[in-house]
Design goal:
By secondary structure, this protein is mostly helical. The chain is 60% helix and 0% strand.
């Protein structure tokens, strides 16, 4: 599937999470591709949010990273929520 011309915010969030997991393991894109059996170019596009992954891809990536697929989705959901406002501590 060719990369989308418009980056979907959820695809970008998912890609950032995948990139964090990859980098935490010290994997290059080439090593990630080798471990996953997926094309390195596709994985790079995925990390940049250029494509929305299929459900099958989410399951495969979860297996590669040894996490639950629901954990990946939960992290995307969490990233979608706005950060709570920062408030000043009460004055003494």
């Amino acid at each position: 599937m060719p990369p989308s011309k418009r980056v979907d915010p959820d695809a970008a969030r998912f890609g950032a999470i995948i990139q964090q997991l990859r980098l935490a393991r010290g994997w290059t894109l080439a090593k990630f591709a080798q471990r996953s059996g997926m094309n390195a170019t596709y994985l790079g596009v995925l990390e940049r949010g250029g494509n929305m992954p299929s459900l099958q891809t989410i399951f495969e990536l979860a297996d590669i990273f040894n996490v639950e697929a629901s954990e990946l989705v939960r992290r995307v959901e969490q990233a979608r929520r706005p950060a709570p406002p920062v408030t000043d501590p009460p004055a003494d």
